[in-house]
Amino acid sequence: MTITADTADLALVPGRVVLDEIVGLRGPWSAVVAAGDVLTIVDLHGNQAVDTLIYDAADHTRRYSAAATVATQQNLFLSTGSVLRDADGEPLMTLVADEVGNHDTVGGACSQESNTLRYGHHTKHQHACVENFLIEGAKWGLGKRDLVSNINFFMNVPVEADGTLGIVDGLSAPGKRLAIRAERDVLVLVSNCPQINNPCNGFDPTPVRMIVTRGE
Question: In sequence order, what are the beta bridge partners of 209?
Answer without folding.
Answer: 22, 42
